[in-house]
Amino acid sequence: MAQWLTGEVIENYAWNQELFSLRVRTQPFEFIAGQFVRLGLPHEGGRVQRAYSLVNGPDEHVLDFLVNRVHDGLFSPLLHDLRAGQAIEVSQPPSGFFTLNEVPDGDSLWLISTGTGIGPYLSMLSTDIPWQRFKRIHLVHAVRYSADLAYNEKILQWVAEHPGQLTYQPVVSREDHAGALRGRIPALIQQGDLQRAVGDILDERAQVMLCGNPDMIRDAKTVLADRGLAKNLRRKPGNVTMEHYW
User: Fold this and answer.
1) In Å, what is the CA distance from 201 to each residue of 189, 192, 198?
2) In this predicted model, what pLDDT tens digit does every residue of 39-77 receive, in sequence order?
């Protein structure tokens, strides 16, 4: 049964009108990069709650959550309105198996996401594990508009610190943006555009993580399977590890 910590909002940072990072301080707790907790707020005499991945690394003491406001939703508009100093509940213990512990070894690690699905990858990249385990890491972030490319400064700092090891490839679907591909990830993989952009191949030595939109995950999984990259299961290790975001 879940326990709840009471946290304090430290910052509610707006990337744009809809996308924001909620930063919260609680008593310290342990988690594995890629896991999630539930955030809770009082509502109509009870508690409304939803799961969010931790964006911060396990050694960072301020919790960080990347959230997109859904206007007809119940919870995200409440989070959007929170301000520094207000209270929020955080569930314990953390949950989830979308972690590098579950990913077999390989030469390259492809961290492919849509929207807020980039969150768990940022947590992973905050640790030593991916840098020690994989020769080449490709962080791919697909969004609708360039204003949705959150944490750009942090990512580019990692790129500078790990030249030749980390590639960052944004994908923007609804407008042109310098350095970005345009289109859907499954089609970009199928046509080879993504591989050409990052200068690597998707073969049996690649490990691919997919996080975000279920349609992207379903279609990308099919395209990757056609290339011989099977779903990664504990009982049968493969190349593709997935996390649906709704």
Assistant:
1) 10, 9, 9
2) 999 988 889 999 999 999 999 999 999 999 998 989 999
Mapped onto helix, strand or coil, the DSSP state of residue 236 is coil
Question: For residue 151, what is the enclosing H or E element?
Answer: none
Instruction: Reduce the DSSP state of residue 33 to 3 states and report it.
Output: coil
DSSP string covering 66-100, please?
EEE--TT-SHHHHHHT--TT-EEEEEES-B---SG
Distances (CA, A) of 180 to 119, 130, 144, 160, 200: 19, 24, 11, 18, 17
Residue 194 structure tokens: 């993504």
> Radius of gyration over alpha carbons of the chain, in Å?
18
d(CA 17, CA 24): 20
DSSP H or E segment with residue 180:
none
When pLDDT is cut at 50, 70 and 90, the band that residue 1 belongs to is confident
Sign of the alpha-carbon dihedral angle for 14, 19, 23, 26: positive
Tokens of 33: 């990069």
List C-alpha distances in Å: 233 to 60, 88, 102, 240: 30, 35, 9, 9
Statement: the pTM of the whole predicted model exceeds 0.85: yes
For 112-122, what is each residue's pLDDT tens digit?
999 999 999 99
Q: How high is the pLDDT of residue 245?
A: 66
